[in-house]
């Protein structure tokens, strides 16, 4: 059985679905601080099975000890965490407590229970403002410009030290680039509980009429059209990467680091134009100054994951945007139905 912390969230839910579709038993632990219980129904509808669920906090050692005692868990995917960059600047202690403290508590409980296979949701943000593109795993980790990024790097360092001290561990640090998109059914996707910070969820809310315009942060970067360039990856490709990485963990020891990206960079304006083409909906734009802490360019060299895991991202930007739009329309329709009934 695989324990997914934060499994009711955007990425964790897609990982849960992918694992269940290939026959694994999944237990989700989530405190639902940024997700909804209804996500479990969505996973059940798509997989034909219901994942186990415990509503609880990853920082609660007593609860974790009970969970490991009660279930035959042999690996953990640790997605639980806080991820809003701006909020992390305002509330750094909360971010360090959850993202670093939560990881320490989880690792302690795992070691106590004799479970040593762990996949961690890390981020390309740990590379900081890298001078050369694409970024491979040998690039030095940089100086993340906000507490969120710092907390991810600190959590990575905690696990690196832990593995050096105890050779039973097998830890995979998955450095995600920019996950977007949704399940192709349109029944599972990102459901922000507050104003979105990231490009795609904000753009979707503008396109569906919930917000007036998309702010484009900075048009004077050293990029072809002056807007920020990122490596957008379909969330289902990302989830498939977790499945491959979990398989690899079972036959290895130590720490492995894998970039999960496509190797392609798209600017903000390229994403907007591609979305307009795919959806047929115009997105009003407002050009604003650069967002504090943003970098100009960031895309992956994904070769290590290909060579070591046999994994590569297969879904195009158009596909990511079409799937995300289908999900947004579905959510909208669901909300309208709930209001009517
Ligand atoms: P999300 O907010 O949708 O999911 C995180 C889940 O963790 C939520 O369901 C939330 O309720 C839960 N959670 C938070 N704190 C918890 C706690 N103390 N105990 C138990 N559950 C808790 O975010 P996501 O986009 O699915 O991201 C998952 C992970 O991937 C996070 O760790 C995030 O930092 C990392 N990551 C995300 C991105 C991205 O762009 N989405 C990029 C890089 C890394
Ligand atoms: N952007 C806008 N308008 C918006 C939101 C974003 O123009 O309303 C721009 C940003 O300036 C940037 C690009 O769109 O150029 C992507 O921004 P996101 O906020 O979507 O993503 P980031 O690259 O800033 O960060 C994301 C996650 C981090 C993760 C990182 C990994 O938020 O958690 O990807 O690359 F670490």
Automatic annotation (TrEMBL):
InterPro entries: Epimerase_deHydtase, KR_dom, NAD(P)-bd_dom_sf, UDP_G4E. Pathway: Carbohydrate metabolism; galactose metabolism. Its cofactor is NAD(+). Coiled coil: none annotated. Signal peptide: none annotated. Homodimer. This is UDP-glucose 4-epimerase. It comes from Pseudomonas lutea. The lineage of its organism: Bacteria, Pseudomonadati, Pseudomonadota, Gammaproteobacteria, Pseudomonadales.
